[in-house]
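Before a colleague's protein record goes any further, I have to sign it off. Thanks in advance; the entry in question is below:
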Amino acid sequence: MQNNEKDHVREQILDAASAVFAKYGYKKATMDDIGHAIKKGKTAVYYYFNGKEDIFRGIVEREANMLGKSIVAAIEKGKSASDKFAMYIHARVNTLQKVSNFYDAMKNELLDSLEFINQARQTYDAFEISLVSSILSQGNKEGSFNVKDCNATAELIVTILKGLEIHLFVVSDQTRLQQKTEEIILSSA
């Protein structure tokens, strides 16, 4: 089997498994469920992946990359630091809704036993903190922000946004909440 075809089948498995994990959760999902979702047996799934953890790792990595790329693409459209910051918040909220497995992995303490989840959290947090820190630094240079410690402030902002995530997924008027979040953070920067 050629690499392109093998990669295509792996992506199909990841897509199907993503839906299975979103429906049942990591703990309750089985390799049989994933095999059934792609209309093949679990033996076929094992040909491409070592097991459920390997599949989940692939999904989490793919969704983390999607989230990161979406945020970077959004902030690149902004000219000023204030624009970039607003676009960062907007892209983060909108993309998190699309990457349910990554989001669940980031907030679910039951998954802490999976070592790669802790590593994924740390890697993604460092990426996001660095991104926000660079926006704050740009804002300092432009004179739109007056932040003394960009890295510490970025860490605080990312932590605050993580705390708001649960509320964002429950509130029906997400646009209003997103606007309020931007107003609060931008007015204190």
Remarks:
- The chain has nine helices and no strands.
- Residues 115-142 form the longest helix (28 residues).
- The chain has a mean pLDDT of 82.
